[in-house]
Amino acid sequence: MVADCGANCARWFLCLANFVFIAVSTGVLIAGTWLAADKASFINLTINVTSSEINPANSSNGDAEKILKEFVEPAVIEQAAYILIALGAFLFIISFLGYCGAIKESRVLLTAYGIFLIIIFALQIALILLSTIYKSQAEHHSKGFLKTSLSKYYTTGTNKDAVTHSWDLVMAHMSCCGVDGAEDFRTAKLFVQKSSAEGLGRQVPESCCILTGDPLSLRPEDPSCISNPTHSNSYLATGCYHKFSNIVNDNVNIVIGVVVVVAATQLLAIIFSFCLCRAVGEERDYHYKY
Hints:
α1 (about 5-35) packs across α10 (about 250-290) and α5 (about 105-135) crosses α6 (about 135-155). The protein has helices at about 5-35, 40-50, 60-70, 75-105, 105-135, 135-155, 160-175, 190-200, 240-250, 250-290. The chain contains ten helices and no strands. The chain is an all-alpha fold.
């Protein structure tokens, strides 16, 4: 064990930080595995745990079960589960290297941990630079992805899926409509088909309207809003992308603060891992000589 005070501080910092990340990554892995194996029970538990005045669990049992069944239908949920599993596994491996390397004072594990962190840090810097340089292209592709999800998957009526419920949740709580506005629903194929079958002359979903009461109940203040949306009864001119951009810009200091904290933590972990690695090497050289 290294006797140097600085090296010991670095050792215990790495042990503590990586133990926390091991616990978090294990939780992410469990959640992803559970979601992949049994989507319905996972979401049902989530709804029950986070129950509040705006939660579908407070609806009648039949309505809650219906919403749950619709929400777990599409492959989007399975894809989210696999993403969680991959993310959890990646974080677990990196954290495990750092924790075992620090607790066992293994130069091999500490070096591998430090190199992985350098690669991740470099990729983050590259991503930030590319996003800044190609800001307009990034916005274009982000909008394209959102518009595609809306035009291909958004629907209305009784057969709503996870994408539709997600969009409804976002629009109801952010007080916005579509990606750029109500005109996005004119190209939403499933929405147009179901609206025509309804025969209500629907132009926009209820979530685009100014709502009353429980947001998740999607009750428009003006019942005629869905067929005759105006600036006074809906958010037809307020796109969610623009609204989200404004929220980010209004809280840019918080965003910058989070980025700085994450970057500083990664840099400290990199520095401490190599300092501890060097201290371990010097300690072993000393014992070898004397």
